[in-house]
Amino acid sequence: MSQSPSPLLSILQNRFGFASFRETQESVCQAVTDGRDVLLVMPTGAGKSICYQVPGIARGGATLVISPLLALIEDQVGKLQKLGFRAERIHSGCQREDSRRVCRQYLSGELDFLFIAPERLGVPGFPEMLKRRPPTLIAIDEAHCISQWGHDFRPDYRLLGERLALLRPIPVVALTATATPIVQEDICKQLGLVDEKRMIQGFRRTNIGIHAVELPPSDRSEAILEILKKPERLPAIIYAPTRKKAEELKDALSATHAVGAYHAGMTPDAREKVQSRFLEGKLKVIVATVAFGMGIDKADIRTVVHAAIPGSVEGYYQEIGRAGRDGLPSQAILFHSYADLKTHEFFLEMNYPEIAHLRMIFKETKPSPSAPQAKDALRKKLGTLDLATFERALEQLWVHRGVLIDPDENISRGDPKWEKAYLSQRDQKQKQLQQISALIASSKCRMIGLISHFGDRKDTGTSCGICDICRPDPAGRRALSPAERDLAARILASLEGQNHQAAGRLFQSIALPGENIERSRFEKMIAVLERAKWIDSQLESFEKDDQKIQYRRLSLNPKQSKKSAQDLASLETHQSPVSAKAPKRKRQKKKPSVSADYETNSEMPRGFETLREWRLEQARRKGVPAFRILTDRALLAICESKPSSPDELSGISGMNRKSITEYGQEIIQILSSKL
Ligand code: ADP
Ligand code: MG
Question: Which ligand is nearest to the CA of 23?
Answer without folding.
Answer: 1
